[in-house]
């Protein structure tokens, strides 16, 4: 296959996948979206066989929602605190602390304006520019 045929093939494949929509099936008969957990990252979606275009199309169709930078959640998933889901993915070794912990356990009437997180000594905060994340 010469390069121009490869480009035509990929273009045809892209157009056909656009027309098929979210009903594409892999060799196992499952859609790539069904192989992913309820909350997944961009890289997990690519590893599951979704292309960048397919991922954005699913978002535009309302089948998934972007909940943070590089994080997605399926439409119709059980209700959850999106900020805590994002935090758990970004800092798995983090612990809620201060007013945030008190509020989660119902021990204060104050509604925290940010999420306070303690990280183990020497742990990297990773991506710490989330909206209301305060590293303690």
Give a quick rundown of the structure.
The chain has 136 residues and is an alpha+beta fold.
List keywords for this structure.
single chain, 136 residues, alpha+beta, 2 domains, 3-stranded antiparallel sheet, 5 helices, 6 strands, 36% helix
Structure explained in plain terms:
This protein has 136 residues and is of the alpha+beta class. The chain has 2 domains: 3-74, no CATH class; 82-135, no CATH class. 36% of the residues lie in helices and 15% in strands. The chain contains 5 helices and 6 strands. The chain has helices at residues 3-20, 42-47, 52-60, 82-90, 98-104; strands spanning 39-41, 64-68, 71-74, 95-96, 115-118, 133-135. The strands form 2 sheets. A 3-stranded antiparallel beta sheet has the order 1-3-2. The protein has a 3-stranded mixed beta sheet with strand order 4-5-6. The N and C termini lie far apart (57 Å). Residues 6-29 and 128-132 have low confidence and may be disordered.
How do the helices and strands line up, and which of them pair or pack?
Layout: H1 3-20, E1 39-41, H2 42-47, H3 52-60, E2 64-68, E3 71-74, H4 82-90, E4 95-96, H5 98-104, E5 115-118, E6 133-135
Anisotropy-based shape: elongated
The overall average pLDDT, rounded, is 76
Q: How much β-strand is present in the residues?
A: 15-25%
Terminal residue distance: 57 Å
Secondary structure class reads alpha+beta
Percent in helix: 25-40%
Please report the total strand number as a whole number.
6
Please give the domain count: 2
Put simply, the count of helices is 5
Q: Taking Cα atoms only, what radius of gyration do you get, to the nearest Å?
A: 20 Å
Question: Which residues form runs of ≥5 with pLDDT under 50?
Answer: 6-29, 128-132
Task: State the order of secondary-structure elements, H for helix, E for strand.
Answer: HEHHEEHEHEE
**Major sheet:** 3 strands, antiparallel
Main sheet strand line-up: 1-3-2
């Amino acid at each position: 296959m010469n390069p121009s045929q490869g480009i035509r093939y990929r273009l045809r494949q892209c157009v056909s996948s656009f027309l098929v929509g979210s009903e594409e099936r892999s060799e196992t008969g499952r859609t790539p979206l069904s192989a992913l957990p309820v909350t997944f990252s961009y890289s997990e979606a690519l590893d599951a066989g979704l292309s960048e275009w397919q991922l954005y199309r699913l978002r535009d169709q309302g089948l998934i929602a972007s909940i943070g930078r590089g994080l997605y959640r399926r439409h119709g998933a059980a209700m959850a605190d999106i900020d805590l889901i994002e935090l758990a993915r970004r800092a798995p070794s983090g612990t809620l602390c201060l007013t945030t912990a008190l509020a989660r356990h119902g021990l204060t009437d104050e509604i925290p304006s940010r999420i306070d997180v303690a990280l183990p000594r020497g742990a990297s905060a990773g991506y710490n520019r989330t909206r209301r994340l305060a590293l303690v």
